[in-house]
Amino acid sequence: SSGINAEYGYFGKPSAVVCYSPGIGSGKQAGIQARAFLGEMACLTIGPILTLPQVHFYIDKEGICTKDEVKKELHLLMKQLAWYTDALTSFRKRKPIPTHV
Q1: Residue 86 dihedral angles phi and psi, to the nearest 5°
Q2: Of 38, 33, 47, whose CA–CA distance to 75 is shortest?
Q3: Closest by Cα among 75, 78, 3, 92 to 41
Q4: What is the 8-class DSSP label of residue 20?
Q5: Gap between the Cα atoms of 73 and 78, Å rounded
């Protein structure tokens, strides 16, 4: 993963996980695996995983979210992601990420 980090610069970047499925499982297992993968990329995952079981009840055929509770959860997730991004950017300016032993 260090080669990927060096090439693409993912190290220390915040990330969020959203997963969904047509069934009741909500893709949560995939979300857990995505969080582990992001950790290997040294990305910092924020808060809980946003899961949408039976996604067809929340998103219409045009891709529009139809449920206010999901919109609120997504809005909060995006606010948290923006907060972490701002915090990490500010801190990196004061103290760069160590890159050597």
Answers
A1: -60, -45
A2: 47
A3: 3
A4: E
A5: 9
Distance CA 10, CA 64 (A): 30
**What whole-number distance in Å separates Cα of residue 88 and Cα of residue 69?**
29
> SS3 for 70?
helix
> One digit per residue, pLDDT tens: the chain, 101 residues?
455 555 567 777 899 999 999 888 878 889 999 999 998 888 889 988 899 999 999 999 999 999 999 999 999 999 999 999 999 889 888 987 777 77
Place of tokens 């032993």: 101
Pair of tokens at residue 16: 């969020």
pTM: predicted TM-score of the whole model, two decimal places = 0.78
**Amino acid of residue 13:** K
Give Cα separations from 78 to 19, 25, 81 (angstroms): 15, 23, 5
| H/E element, 80 | helix 68-94
